[in-house]
Amino acid sequence: MIRLHVPQTLFPGAALAPTLDQSRYLTQVMRLKAGDLLLVFNGVDGEWRCVVAEVLKKGVILKAEDQVRPQTHGPDLELIVAVVKKARVETIVEKAAELGAKRVRLAITQRTNAERIRLDRLDAIAEEAAEQTGRLDVPVIDEPVKLEAILDTWEDGRRLMFCDETGGAPPVRALASPSPSGEGERKPWSILIGPEGGFSPEEGERLRALSFTTAVSLGPRILRADTAAIAAMTLWQAAVGDWDRGYDRD
Ligand code: SAH
User: Fold this and answer.
1) Is the CB of 50 under 6 A from ligand 1?
2) Residues whose CB falls within 8 Å of the CB of residue 137, separated by 6 or more in sequence, listed in order
3) Contacts of 131 by beta carbon, 8 Å cutoff, 6+ apart
4) CB of residue 223 inside a 6 A radius of ligand 1
């Protein structure tokens, strides 16, 4: 069934007006007609069965019927990635949504080249990817911010998986610290990926010295930033992720 993300509140009988782009997708690509059903979520109210109530020139009107799944949230995983070329940033955002990141933060590092970032485009990519995966929330994408500022205002209790191309520990062993219940560590985590030019020696030194950092290697080959992001999120999931949760359920 088609899944659509909307900003509106969901309750029985709620009338929803998807954007023009979403309406075109529903009627022209997916060929939905009045009376057809689809699934809708807004990141708060769970997943709802909705019916296409009206097909108008200026868009479709949906009507919410009933909740089919309660709201669930994935792990508290952030991806912090240095701004790289536009196409790679777009791939990274899509894959982060698919691999369960809650937030993507774009970082400006010493070796970041200026790139124009279109946040509206990245938001749309994250939304479409979330719709496709079955998750019930959409990752938040943040404006580029200096890496130093991100580190200066670090949240208490959050761990950092620093992907260090100059060498680090194998991730699966380094991230999982055994707990008596055998559940792994349900802590907030961030993964950090550098730009194509890598981190500067000072940045690497500062990152390794932080008390909340675990420096990891992604293997003995240098990966592009997009490949590194996908590999890192997968390895994080393998070590401390939400495999035990079943399909997008708490
Ligand atoms: N210019 C650097 C490579 C940068 S690759 C060089 O040639 O040495 C971009 C980013 O991907 C890196 O900063 C790092 O965060 C991540 N990365 C790539 N390969 C990696 C690896 N084998 N281990 C850990 N991190 C890696």
Assistant:
1) no
2) 41, 43, 71, 73, 74, 102, 130
3) 3, 4, 5
4) yes
- Whether 228 lines ligand 1, by a CB cut-off of 6 Å, is yes
How large is the C-alpha radius of gyration of the chain? 20
Mean pLDDT by runs of 10 across the 250 residues of the chain is 96 97 95 97 98 95 98 94 96 98 97 90 97 96 97 96 94 75 69 97 97 96 97 94 61
pTM (2 d.p.)? 0.93
- The two three-digit tokens of residue 186, written as one number: 């349900």
Domains of the chain plus CATH, in order, are 3-69 (2.40.240.20), 77-240 (3.40.1280.10)
- Between the CA of 82 and the centroid of ligand 1 the distance, in Å, is 11
CA distances from 210 to 148, 158, 201 (A): 12, 12, 15
The answer, yes or no, to whether any atom of ligand 1 lies below 6 A from the CB of 222, is yes
Cβ 218 under 6 angstroms from ligand 1: yes
